[in-house]
Amino acid sequence: MVKLVAALSGLMMVNVAGAGLAQQPHPLNDVIWDVNAGVAVTEDELGAALLPYRYVLLGEKHDNPRHHDIQARLLAAIAQGERPPRVVFEMLDSASNTVIQAIAQGGFADDMAGLGKALRWEERGWPDFAMYAPVFEVAMAAKLPIVAGGPTREALKSVARGTPPEDAQGLRWERAYSDSQQADLVEELVVSHCQMVPPEHMAPMVAMQRLKDALMAKEMRAAERSGAVLIAGNGHVRKDRGVPHFLPLEGTRVVSPLEVREGKLRASDYLEVAKGLADYVWFTRAVASEDPCEQYKEQLQKLKEKAAKGHE
Fold first, then answer.
1. Is residue 34 packed enough to be buried (19+ CB in 10 Å), middle (13-18) or exposed (0-12)?
2. CA angle at residue 152 from 290 to 224, to 5 degrees?
3. pLDDT digits (tens, 9 = 90+) for 140-163
4. CA-CA distance, 5 to 163, in Å (whole number)?
5. What is the pLDDT of residues 164-209, one digit of tens each?
């Protein structure tokens, strides 16, 4: 079971709530909500508010192009500050370092398609690289250091088997989740995997999620002077756990681009606002997409068939 769960870590967590939403006018569309103050703010006000903070976490729903546009715009605003930050990507791991070094030397400046291919972006399971290209373009134009924040597949498999990660001290691995954090993460993982993996089999996935968060936080903390911006999914940037669990909250701000939902017309109708999971929520339209659970069923079946052949 551990091998199957570890293999599933390579599949992106689906957003069940966002699937199949009609593109109807919504009063919150493109509203930026200051969760702490309880008011709407402008993009300029948000950009200025983020400048003093050492660690800024920019969330996303992976397949929503508008979310990556928002990340690019906010990164450009932050890059204008006195301490241009390093940019840590969830989507990159140490296998990307050769390409990252080429970027630092001026490579791929006018070749986003080539960059996507060099990073094996879609081959590794991420959505169309063209959606992420604006974020890379901003970082490269401002000469911001690009950093791989994701663990290798081998490291994920290792913690899934119950082995403590290398450099546990540097990762602050001793900061275990509380019972409530653990239960909440298990519930999220069950839902995001379309109820197809029971809660009692979620321990390996919890360990892998924790490793991802701890490593991204470590890469952010490494930029003590310049600060860091994280590009990662909304599940990783939430303040009650995730990457902020391993960062000093007083120096951290979280922005979550969030798709609006039918029938939820007030900011307080959304968990991210009601529970303070983000400091700012930027509401956007939902993207139309195929049923993610049907896609997940197909992926899961292929993994089971592959595992069965391996035992023959």
1. middle
2. 105
3. 999 999 999 999 999 999 999 999
4. 15
5. 999 999 999 999 899 999 999 999 888 887 888 888 889 999 999 9
The pair of structure tokens assigned to 12 is: 């992106």
Using CB atoms within 10 Å of the CB of residue 224, give its burial: 0 to 12 exposed, 13 to 18 middle, 19+ buried: exposed
d(CA 267, CA 260): 9
Q: How many CB atoms lie within 10 A of CB 211?
A: 22
Q: Which of 216, 213, 79 is nearest to 135 (CA)?
A: 79
Residue whose tokens read 């599940």? 235
Cβ-Cβ contacts under 8 Å for 265 (sequence gap 6 or more): 26, 27, 28
Closest CA to 234 of 8, 5, 17: 17
Q: Residue 266 and residue 165: Cα distance in Å, rounded?
A: 42
In 3D space, the residue among 118, 73, 59 whose CA is nearest the CA of residue 252 turns out to be: 59
